[in-house]
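Hi Y.,

Following your request, here is the sequence exactly as I used it, all 140 residues.
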Amino acid sequence: MPLSVMVFYTRRPDVTPNQFREYMENVHVPIIKDVMREHYPTCYTLRYVVRVDSGAGDRLGANTASKKRAPPDAPVVLVGSPSDLGWDAMGEMVFRDELHVQQGLGTINSPDGQRVKEDEEVFTITDKLRVVLMGESKTM
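Below is the corresponding structure, written out as tokens. Let me know if you'd prefer a different format.
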């Protein structure tokens, strides 16, 4: 049975959302691929928070995400406050089964996997990194 591991990344304050995305896709994920090799997930989907400067908050009537009320790089939060959101990107790693998850985690926790952890320090707040194993999913 496929299993998903959700990874929540929080960018460092000195890194803009665009720099964060570029770095994630062009530097960090290639390092993960190189370290994990054959144990890389069958699918790794990255989703980034939409920002106020996109205008989406105004178009959707989200008062706390209006260009008039929030900084341009604040997240568009439809319910709640932008300060409630503690991450900038969510990655979903899909593994074939529990053995595949174990193998993947084994590579990340190996000496070579230290490269992934060191690289995360370049553009994320590592104390805020969250990694969660997800159970069964159902599309409704």
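The chain has two domains: 3-49+87-134, 51-85.

Thanks again,
Q.
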